[in-house]
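FYI - complex with protoporphyrin IX containing FE, inputs then prediction.
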Amino acid sequence: MQFFTDDLIADPYPHYQRWRDDQPIWWEESSGQWVLTRNEDVQRVLRDHDCFSSAAMGAGNSPLPLLTDDPPRHTKLRGIVNKAFTTRMLRDLEPAIEEVARDLVGRFPDGELDVVEALTVPFPVIVISRMMGIPEERREDFKRWSDALTGILAGTSLEDRRSEILEMATFFQTLIPERRLTPGDDLLSAVARAEVDGQYLSDAEIVGFNMLLLIAGNETTTNLLGNMLNVLATRPDVWMELRNNPDLIEPAIEETFRFDSPVQFLMRQATEEVEFHNQPVKQGERVMVVMGSANRDSRVIDSPDEFDIGRDKTRHYSLGYGIHFCLGAPLARLEARIAMGVLLERFDLLDPGLVAGKRVPSHLLRGFERLPLRFNRAR
Ligand code: HEM
């Protein structure tokens, strides 16, 4: 059986449901790994980081620290960047993020527009570039580098993407000395000057960290916003509800995470033999846990295929679970809340475009490459 087929990109959810019901574990032939789709199994794997390692996924040469590290190294490294994402720091950033959103939305042309181009791609890139103190004019490069890195996470070889990765590494490498000498109030300076056990991080670690920060939050946040606007374009009732009660924006964002997850799956490697539904998984074998499916498991969620912002508690695994839980989650949530707030304030109705949207051609990252929409202004 195969996971990586074209019709899964168009609409993975009926497939996921079939697998949850009929084959809760199966062997994906093309990539050579087990696929797990039930809520309880996804949680078990992500929770048990001793049995299901992230380190092996980097195969010892991953350019990305943290994401491909296990404790104790993971714990140390995470402490460093964690400081940068404190609630206080984010609160201070809020006005600047809002200014970016207002500026982009203020430039929307009348009539139909591609919201991916006009808002959802530039918005997170500009925000993170400013946080890191790097020139946002290099946006095109960031996008190219980011595609190369996400390709690796999705399973293509490092070799194929070597030139982009090297280019990105060189870019950051050249910035390290100046940020150590004359640090600014930015993330890159914070990482360049961070000490673990009295020592600076190595240049390779600093470069890796910065690559992670630059790419982890861009396409994912782009996809979150695209997936949300895609649903709202066909739900004028929800658009109105959110306009009337902005307190519902946050629950609506969480429901979007659950309903159409920007990251569909994660991979881990078994460190010992384990069993799922009477199927042994041997030590060293890889498992793929599909959060996009776990989020719609009727065993734990009522009417999972309905987009319902009034749920009591929206539980989802779209930002991960356990020790690798998304470090940028507060920033992603803040960006989404601000962007949606600006759009809802300015437009009283959202309609689908006349031209159909185009999904990102990836099984890992679910979002839109192009999403034509019509934002109708309050008269
Ligand atoms: C909607 C937006 C986002 C989504 C859906 C998302 C999703 C995820 C997921 C699923 C993980 C877990 C990976 C794993 O367990 O292997 C993760 C980890 C991570 N994310 Fe995010 N992310 C988003 C935004 C961001 C932002 C804005 C940043 C930072 C600028 C960020 C930085 C990170 C980092 C550094 C990790 C690694 C944490 C660790 O391994 O301890 N993410 N993210």
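DSSP finds 16 helices and 14 strands in the chain. The longest strand covers residues 265-270.
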